[in-house]
TrEMBL record:
NCBIfam families: gatC (TIGR00135). This is Aspartyl/glutamyl-tRNA(Asn/Gln) amidotransferase subunit C. Keywords: ATP-binding, Ligase, Nucleotide-binding, Protein biosynthesis. HAMAP family: GatC. It comes from Bradyrhizobium ivorense. Heterotrimer of A, B and C subunits. GO terms for biological process: glutaminyl-tRNAGln biosynthesis via transamidation; regulation of translational fidelity; translation. It catalyses: L-glutamyl-tRNA(Gln) + L-glutamine + ATP + H2O = L-glutaminyl-tRNA(Gln) + L-glutamate + ADP + phosphate + H(+); L-aspartyl-tRNA(Asn) + L-glutamine + ATP + H2O = L-asparaginyl-tRNA(Asn) + L-glutamate + ADP + phosphate + 2 H(+).
Length: 95
């Protein structure tokens, strides 16, 4: 796949990048080189290769999924104007 000058101008327009007519040939060459590299990547045989998220094998650190109050309930509601049973009380605004 190759990019022509019209496509370069369209890409620049979509990216909101001001490109002068003198810059178009250079960008056309750059984009064509990038696309050629991507086409090379499709030639690599990846059959049987597991997808990975890191180059080093590791497990995600997980915490227990426990429901708790964070043990700081008193500190959270300390500055509230009105509370009941560790809940914020707010004035009624809808009839």
């Amino acid at each position: 796949m190759s990019v022509d000058a019209t496509t370069v101008r369209r890409i620049a327009h979509l990216a909101r990048i001001a490109v002068s007519d003198a810059e178009v040939p250079h960008l056309q060459g750059e984009l064509n080189a990038i696309l050629a590299f991507v086409e090379q990547l499709s030639e690599v045989n990846v059959e049987g290769v597991e997808p990975m998220t890191s180059v080093t094998p590791m497990e995600m650190k997980k915490r227990a999924d426990l429901v708790n109050d964070g043990e700081i309930v008193d500190a959270i509601v300390r500055n509230a104007p009105d509370t009941t049973d560790h809940f914020f009380l707010v004035p009624k605004v809808v009839e």
